Amino acid sequence: MAANTDFIIQEVKNQRMNKIAVKGMAKFVSTVSVALFTLVTATQALAQGDAAAGAEKITVCLACHGQDGNMSQIANVPKIGGQNADYLLKQMNDIKSGVRAAPLMTGMLNNLNDQDMADVAAYYASQAAPQGAAEPEKVALGESLYRAGNADIGVAACSACHSPNGQGLASAGYPALSGQDPAYTELQLRAFRDGVRNNDDAEVMRSIAARLNDAEIAALASYLAGLR
């Protein structure tokens, strides 16, 4: 009798967890839809950049990002070569306006106007994307989360927004992630999870990262470094 009671209690718990997961996934889909509309609308209003002109305006960027955008060895500095131009431009606008906190970028954009920033974004977007390598022991978990998500905790596949090869979705402003320095990716996921970074439209990244533990974040960051 006790065994049957324990079984029933466990089944009730499982059903509750499934309902929570389903609600989480439904909320995620709805949130992404809103964010996608917001991003596409905002992208249409951004200045159009000129990569050739941008090549003459990157002096302020060289010390940290280098000529190709991928030379940084500092965890707080992302590799930006080959990154989607609209995403880069949004981040520069957010940093310049104070919406996104980025201490290392303080004052760096003050002398760049909207067209200058669009040109710089276009220049770095035209560069080759970075390439890295994943730690073998983290690939299984990282790949599972990236390609399939985890329905048990209401996390959808990262590839749904960032594409199967990690090149992002330029038309929606979703960034490329493949080849990124894992320390930087891990830092940003933690920042989203902890609410330190909050410039994601419709809280898409915050709602996802909030459900991930440290091991899952580390595995994702490592897997993305080696994704092609």
Summarize the structure.
The protein is an all-alpha fold and 228 residues long. It has helices at 2-44, 51-54, 62-65, 85-97, 114-125, 136-148, 159-162, 182-194, 204-209, 214-226. The model is unreliable at 16-23 and 27-44 (pLDDT under 50).
Write the SSE topology:
Layout: H1 2-44, H2 51-54, H3 62-65, H4 85-97, H5 114-125, H6 136-148, H7 159-162, H8 182-194, H9 204-209, H10 214-226
Task: List the main descriptive attributes of the protein structure presented here.
Cytochrome Bc1 Complex, Chain D, domain 2, 2 domains, 228 residues, mainly alpha
Structure explained in plain terms:
Residues 16-23 and 27-44 have low confidence and may be disordered. With 228 residues, the chain is mainly alpha-helical. α4 runs antiparallel to α5. It has helices at 2-44, 51-54, 62-65, 85-97, 114-125, 136-148, 159-162, 182-194, 204-209, 214-226.
Count all strands and give the number.
Answer: 0
Fraction in helix? 40-55%
The main pleated sheet reads as: none
What is the level 1 CATH name of the largest domain?
A: Mainly Alpha
Q: What is CATH's topology name of the largest domain?
A: Cytochrome Bc1 Complex, Chain D, domain 2
Q: What is the succession of H and E elements?
A: HHHHHHHHHH
Low-confidence stretches: 16-23, 27-44
- Please tell me how large the radius of gyration is: 20 Å
CATH architecture of the largest domain: Orthogonal Bundle
What is the CATH superfamily of the largest domain? Cytochrome c-like domain
Span of the ends, CA to CA: 55 Å
Count up the helices: 10
Give the class from helix and strand content and strand pairing: mainly alpha
Shape: globular
Q: In total, how many domains does the architecture comprise?
A: 2
Q: What is the mean pLDDT? A: 87
Fraction of residues in β-strands: under 5%
